[in-house]
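Handoff note, outgoing to incoming analyst
You'll be picking up this chain. Sequence as last confirmed:
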Amino acid sequence: MKISLIITTYNWKEALALVLASVARQTRLPDEVIVADDGSRPDTAAMLRERARDFPAPLRHSWQEDEGFRAARSRNRAIAACSGDYVLMLDGDMVLHREFVADHLVAARAGAFVQGSRVLTTPGFRERMLQDVGACPGFLSKGIARRRNALWLPMLSRAWLALNRRTSPHAIKTCNQGWWRTDLLRINGFDERMQGWGREDEELAWRAWHAGLRCRQLRYSGLAFHLHHNERHVDGASANDHYLAATRASHLTRCELGLDAHLQEFQRHSLPDLRAGC
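Most recent structure output, in case you need it:
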């Protein structure tokens, strides 16, 4: 099975570099990594070209103009450009446990997408991680929250997946998810009407649920550590709440303005592997 790892980013190249370092240490490398860039400055592209010199997998950069928070469109472009059978999605501030990719493959099942969790770090531990590539929290580390999400217990994880019967969307965040690409194509990816912070991930999950896809909650494996940062939103409300409400009320399965708008572009011109220019 070919795996595409999609990492979203916006103007935080230091965090992205740390995430890429954790990708390079995976026991099961992804078959390609695509950075879905929502309009970062040129220094992000420069960092990616530098990292590509010794990166162990194809590294690609999908960039779009900075016209505000357009994570839905940025992710759709990366999904359209990827070649994997299975798509792992994470944010550019999520540092991965070395078994992250392998754990997601164990959890992958037909007719479902996988929702992982995250460990939260304090500003102090974030700085330690940014300064020391090898500094990764453990269950007993100071400076973390949601501590149970730092437990790597693969046997317990498999038992949880087998016994957990709650399959409707909940605790949805695209900072740690796994999808079959064919399923994303069927529901047409993210709804690009949704701009500004929030709900594009939850809305996608509800369309998937309406289309018959289960949500498999991943626990005790697929670990990822979130680098603390100030949120780009003020409170829990989002300008996109009405789109989510409409999707749930109408049992929508496919959005109109979505992934298919970008397929032809990448059929004509694929994203280059940045290692080729090194």
